[in-house]
Amino acid sequence: MPSPILQLNQVTRQFSRLAQPAVCAVSCSLQSGDLLALLGPSGCGKTTLLRLIAGFEQPQDGSIEIAERQVAGDGVWVPPEQRGVGMVFQDYALFPHLTVRQNVMFGLNDRLERGKLERSKLERSKRLKEVLALVRLEGLEDRFPHQLSGGQQQRVALARALAPSSALILLDEPLSNLDLQVRLRLRQELRQILKAAGASAIFVTHDQEEALSIADQVAVMCQGRLEQVGTPEQLYQRPASRFVAEFVTQANLIAAERRGEFWQTELGDIPVTQTESANCNQADLLVRQENLILSTDASSPIVIRDRQFLGREYCYSLELPSGQSLQARSPIGTHLAVGTFVQVAVAAPQLQLYPR
Ligand code: ADP
Ligand code: MG
């Protein structure tokens, strides 16, 4: 097992004694070369956690190790410029009066690399060429930031962070200022660039699709705490909490009550399977959008309230008698009009329940 590039142990940061901690007892590790997405809603503590790792914030509790060296906690404090960490911000934070070349070189002049002497002028211009090739900005060295598109500006910011061969790159919502098309293209590119550079990175996002599509590991954060860390597949298949189920996999949760060998729900009775805990009588049942099968039935109390055409499928919004709404995805062949009453069957290969 290779040693982790980052190790967080019970890291806590509380800004005010009256408020709950912005980051609360977070423990997590990142393997060298991995890309970790830190995913959570706005205000859950993502930026604070990045700032703790970079050294712009000091934890009240817990410790941080980067490349097997303790940088914070237990009375140890290593300042940001000595941590070997590169940072990319949402608003790029490029120097407007410096050219692309000067912006990227700033990353090299700015800091002495850990354990190395400052690079010679020749080495620096060689490195400049390398990283500009990596982010595909060759030929734009003499442009100023205002002469570049948003996507190009973000690639300059990435080049600046990569230039000193930092042990770890931290990216705080790097794509959220870009329009959708550029964002979709750049997110794959970002992964390729980081992988080609052999970088280890933490990528902050509030967009679950972005996190699942590019990360090796995803850490889900809610109200300062880590809810679950795992591969995108693990998170999708086995969300550990209601929050992960809803926020990350966008699944439906419906109330279920145990009646002998069945779970009674608004969608009908669903047989209890062996895998569920026997000692819980009330639960929320996870039902994926793609596992709902709709068929027209005028006597059903479930009605289609809305329909979105998504190209390969429809997304139907259903209203249950209780008023709860459910989302269902169906292939284009099943064309049902808004206002149609439908019967809903659940094709659930495995049941997932969250006890109440
Ligand atoms: P995110 O990046 O996930 O949106 P933040 O880490 O920026 O969340 O913020 C987490 C919480 O900490 C929020 O409630 C925010 O208001 C609070 N917070 C962040 N920075 C400070 C600060 N410097 N002083 C006081 N409260 C702060
Ligand atoms: Mg933030």
From TrEMBL:
Keywords: ATP-binding, Nucleotide-binding, Transport. InterPro entries: AAA+_ATPase, ABC_SmlMolc_Importer, ABC_transporter-like_ATP-bd, ABC_transporter-like_CS, Mo/tungstate-bd_C_term_dom, P-loop_NTPase, Transp-assoc_OB_typ2. SMART domains: AAA (SM00382). The keyword rRNA processing does not apply. One of its GO terms (cellular component) is ATP-binding cassette (ABC) transporter complex. GO terms for molecular function: ABC-type quaternary ammonium compound transporting activity; ATP binding; ATP hydrolysis activity. Its EC number is 7.6.2.9. It is found in: Cell inner membrane. This is ABC-type quaternary amine transporter. It comes from Pegethrix bostrychoides GSE-TBD4-15B.
